[in-house]
């Protein structure tokens, strides 16, 4: 049965209490930080290759960042969402190696989901294009196109529904891929179904997650910047090294620049790793929150407990209390 109003608030409060410790999991943050450390240099190399091929900036930078970023994100997000699914849904802590193997086995699915949706949209629009081409035929063409125009409307609606379901429901799509090992089209259909059945719940949960995440990330970010600023200042005063100006990281010509005292590469790498670890919290939070929203919607719509969804077994120790209403 669906949860009652009071029980729903109890479940939501319990869920929110889980999010922060789950998102700050050192394994997740370290994994994202390592991925960022690898992706940035590779993106730079890819950009240089694209520029050498004759494509000028900013298109070369954007294209290389999107391709490299999407490849890394497809693998990392699958790992993070798989870990979050067990931690949030079943109150279990799976091994990182298990989640990595899962992400590797599902890498092609996560990588090709977005392109496959674009192909589906193009296929849905094909009848509309065919009707439009038919209108070019002299004499009988316009008449036939007018008769078949409802087909063009149906195909346009199908394309729009697919695109909206994927874009708006992207968090639910990626969660379904990890939680239920769904196919791309099954994940998109689930996302569309949940959006149609509970749009207010989806929007409300997303706003709550964004607000909660923004506050926690701001606090952690300020602490990270203050710690790095203070440590570097003290180091420079004690060693006589030059204080970087400006001190904050910046992107110049497609490359991430992290200033370090006296330009030391070792100190620069250490500071970059420190920043990356705290930035990784945002990525970890995003994956954890989308799993929480997905499990919450599934629970509210069909009454299935998250533990059953994730493990296929009745819960032994509940991450979210079970409540029921009449």
Brief rundown of the structure:
β1 and β2 form a beta hairpin. The longest helix is centred in the last third of the chain and has 41 residues, at 199-239.
Question: Sheet bearing the most strands, described?
Answer: 2 strands, antiparallel
- Strand segment count: 2
Identify low-pLDDT runs. Answer: 1-6, 315-326
For the biggest β-sheet, the strand order reads 1-2
Structural class designation: mainly alpha
| H/E element sequence | HHHHHHHHHEEHH
Give the overall average pLDDT.
Answer: 78
Structure description:
The longest helix is centred in the last third of the chain and has 41 residues. A two-stranded antiparallel ribbon has the order 1-2. Helices cover 78% and strands 2% of the residues. It has one domain. It is mainly alpha-helical.
Can you lay out the helices and strands and say which pair or pack?
Elements: H1 5-23, H2 26-52, H3 59-89, H4 96-105, H5 107-134, H6 140-168, H7 170-179, H8 184-197, H9 199-239, E1 250-252, E2 255-257, H10 265-302, H11 306-311
Antiparallel strand pairs: 1-2
What are the defining features of this structure?
two-stranded antiparallel sheet; globular; mainly alpha; 326 residues
